[in-house]
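pasting for ref
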Amino acid sequence: MFERVLSFLRDLPAGSSAHASTDDPRVAASALLYHVMNADGVRQDVEWERFKAVLSESYSISGAELEALAAAGERADNEAIDLYAFTSVLKRHLDAEGRKAFIGLMWEIVYADGELHELEDNTVWRVAELIGVERHDRVEARRKAAAQAPGARGTSSDE
């Protein structure tokens, strides 16, 4: 399933304008991943590196292209008034399995620092609701990400 999502994400159009648009699914995904990374108010180096690694793996990009997408996601998130602009783009471009896998990517970012903060948990919950990912799928993705992050701690209202 994860490989299908990566394949789908790689095939999304890169956008033709000089300034990346939030209508571009890559920018929308980058903005949401950036948003969850900063949800707890502390951006650690390990989180930033995982964020860039997820973008690199998802879109098969590196170097200046990777930096541009990361910057576009950061800029879009900083200019956004809510998450709907991004989630509506992803909901249109991802099928149900792709949306579940995207929530898994969000959890990877959350657990990059080995901790789960309630604001991160709430952000993933809101995004999952907006893109139509069921509670049990969100919880399962969280458990999987937590299991892959040794020493992860924190609790969630889902437990």
